[in-house]
Amino acid sequence: MKLKPGAIADSHTSHGNLTGSWRTFKPVYKQKDCTGCKLCVINCPEGCVFEVEDRKYTCNLKYCKGCGICAVECHVNDIEMILEDK
Amino acid sequence: MKTFIEGSRAVADAVTVCRPKVISAYPITPQTHIVEELAKIVANGKVKAEFVNVESEFSAASVVLGSCATGARSYTATTAQGLFLMAEVLFNISGMRLPIVMTCANRAVSAPINIWNDQQDSLSMRDSGWIQLYAEDNQEALDMHLQAYKIGENKGVLLPVMVCMDGFILTHSYEPVELISQEDADRFLPSYQPEDYLNPDNPVTMGAMVGPEAYMETRYLMQEAMENSVKVIEDVANEFNNQFGRYYGGLIDTYKLEDAETVIVSLGSVLGTVKDAVDSLREKGEKVGVLKVRSFRPFPKDAICEALKGAKKVHVLEKAVSIGMGGIVSSEIKAAFCGKTGVPEIVGSIIGLGGRDITVETIIGILNGSGDSSYDQFIDIKKELVEDPEPSDEAVAANA
């Protein structure tokens, strides 16, 4: 497919870039002491943390780069980063 | 009917009849009068455009990048330090293939700070992917803005265009010029109709990351677009001539070149002085001619070699220097001749940096000088400013 001038692409094409492959450590959302403060959601640079139900959060591992910001920000230590075997 | 008007105001008038929808600029000498006038024109409602005030040139360039991406014809202007502050965005604009037009009121670059004219600023931006056109006088400068939009917005080109006009020498001088009416401008320049633009009803991705698998191809296509613009620049100059009866050359122009043995090559407003020098030498029977480089990007290699092939000696006069190499334009002309036979002797001369006056005598002095093609010479260097003084007799005696 020929590139358009300026490499203009269809909308949402960046969804095809699965940044989860960059990950070394993966976050485990323990869903135990969560207060529902949403700091993990707000601080995720990929915007891939989401609410499952009240005070239960998880992230989309297709896009999670394993940066660990959510685990650092969580003030009740309800997110743990573990080394991931792939 | 001609109007006696300052160069900057003439350019502002020409930009107005191009019907830009967004103008954003930060004032900087000697560009200020252009955007000052445009702000006034927009405020008076003479053109339906947004004038976006910003806090820096980086922001000005970013605003027009964004507005052009939405499909709005956009304009900015700057010079020297402002141009360099825009540098990152300039590459983004060309890489995103947004046909913005910018006026560069050519000025020397700091340090030391100097607000007077030379062409170091735009020539230093030669690899930014912008088409660069150089105006010789105010009429050409104002006409060039209409041509610039038509060239840049051509479907085979889609590149931004920098209209370069010498700061103060053109921007601040009053000359009688033919201003262009809105009806005539509309007849020459259709509205900007991009195929893809930012639109919530039909979303696209612009400026996304492109990895090793396709980045090279984006650059290849930009080079191809620049090559396409070679013909488009000529065509647009001819179209302009057909409608308005004014022609300044397309990629290049020539003056008394046919039988010339010695040719002076230059760009911008100094060509007026060069032509005066050539006229006086012609009166004495010397076969001297002029080659004007109107388009520096794309660099018209073929047209220049063809125009210079009969010459014995070529003097390239330029108001810029690539420190560590020499003349920028002279290097490119020498490179254009590489591999060809019957190459003239090409002498590079650096002149008029930081607003140093260039007279007819300066130019005749260069032609009569001892410069050769082995190096590019700085013209009229003041020895007392660059050499240590001779030690006094007392100092010599004291050291003895």
In a nutshell, what does this entry contain?
Chain A has helices at residues 39-43, 69-73; strands at 9-10, 25-29, 49-53, 56-59, 79-83. Chain A is an alpha+beta fold. Chain B is 40% helix and 18% strand.
What does this protein structure show overall?
The complex is a heterodimer of chains A (86) and B (400). Chain A has helices at residues 39-43, 69-73, and strands spanning 9-10, 25-29, 49-53, 56-59, 79-83. Chain A is an alpha+beta fold and 86 residues long. In chain A, a hairpin with a 2-residue loop joins strand 3 and strand 4 (56-59). Chain A starts with 8 loop residues before the first strand and ends with a strand. The model of chain A has no long low-confidence stretch (mean pLDDT 94). Helices cover 40% and strands 18% of the residues of chain B. In chain B, helix 10 links the parallel strand 11 (262-266) and strand 12. In chain B, strands 3-2-4-5-7-6-13 form a 7-stranded mixed beta sheet, sandwiched between helices. In chain B, strands 10-12-11-14-15-16 form a 6-stranded mixed beta sheet, with helices on both faces. A two-stranded antiparallel sheet of chain B has the order 1-8. Chain B is an alpha/beta fold and 400 residues long. The A-B interface holds A 3-14, 17 and B 95-98, 158, 196, 203-210, 214, 217-218, 221, 225.
